Each structure stands twice: as structure tokens, then as C-alpha cells.
Amino acid sequence: MNYHNQTLIDMLAAEYVLGTLRGPARKRFQTLMMQSTRIREATWQWEQHLNDINQQIHPVEPSAAVWQTISQRLGFDENTAKETGHQVIKSGLSRLWPVLTGITTAASLLLAVLLWRESQVPVAPGPVQHVAVVKGEDAASYWLIEVHSREITVRAGTSFQGLADKDYELWAVAANEPNPVSLGLLPKQGELVLAKNTRFDQLDIQMLAVSEEPLGGSPSGLPTKVLYTAELSQL
Known about the structure:
By secondary structure, the chain is α+β, with helices and mostly antiparallel strands. The chain has seven helices and nine strands. The longest helix is centred in the N-terminal third of the chain and has 20 residues, at 37-56.
């Protein structure tokens, strides 16, 4: 898989969140998520995007004709339907509705909503191990960075005004590495949780750096244009 092909990453991430990526392809994508920060971020963004769509969709009660068609396909004859009553059949079929429509966009969105709800279960990030504040030339705080045991929480300051056609990438500059190590893309506003690089705790970090990149992050694996640096303080 080409990690620099953002279109391909977005397509697979969307299919994964929708639930249409199945079998060996889904397992392979899960493995790639554990290896690539960019893929994890794309998946997270699609979960948020589809959740926004879900909030705009109002539930629609299926018509009587729909229920009748489903009951016929499931083998309920007219006499059975009369004996059991419409409400009983409707109640039983309502539990089967997501399965019966599993190949439709509606069911895919439903699955995305379930995934989003699972992601909202609060998980304690653990104590803050390191902290850094990235400031601009005007001395305004642009990002607050908190490093936990397994993740990095980043909050964008209200003073930061990012360019719409650019992304901003966080890097660790370490004495024991010849090149800066990418820690993920920074939010232009609000808060974002980054998966902590598995090598983070082994790095002798001298400073953090923020670079301006094309949308999707550095195409070369190295900072394109370094804008800011910040000290990483241990707590």
C-alpha cells in the first residue's frame, strides 16, 4: 500500500468505518492502522465525518407496505400475520432491520454510528508525562501538547490561523536519530488525540518541531518547511 497516496488511504478508511471493508482486507487494514499514524488519523477523521452526517439524518418509519414485503420474504403467510398481529411481527422484524438492509448505505451509516459511540466511551489517558507549548512569532500559544503513556493530546489555541490548503505536522527531533520522527498531524482547531509513536519512549528528544506540509502530511517523510519549535518538558 502506498502510504503517501492520501486518496487511497481515505477510500480504505471510509470503507473500514462504514463496515464495507471485510475479510482479509479488513484484517490487513487493521494491521496497517497499528503501523501508520497517517492511517489512524484518516480513520478517526472518517468516524467524525460520518458521525456529523448521522446527526443530520432523521429516522424514518418504514411504511406498512415495506413491513408486508419483508414478512412475505421471511415466510410469514397472511394467516400467520393475522394470528400474531401486526405489532408482534413489526417488533420482531425491527430487530432484524439492520441485518436485512446490511448492503445499503443506511446500514453502513448505522454501523458508522455504532463505531462512533464506542469511540466515545471515556478511556483514562493516564497521567501526563511530558508537556510542550508551541508558540508563534507573536508569542501566542498555538498548540498545547500533552504526552501520556499511550497517546498524545493536542489542543489548538484560538490564536492559530491555519491555511486551508496546508497541514501542520508534529516532529520529534532526537539526538539518537539522524532525522526528525513524525508524531502526526496537528489540529487546526479544537482537540485531537494522536496515537503515540511506538518509538517515542526510546527517543532522546531535544525538541519538538512543527512543519507546514501539503494536505495529508509530508510527502517525503521529512519536514518540508519548519515553522516552529518547542521544548518538551518532563513532569
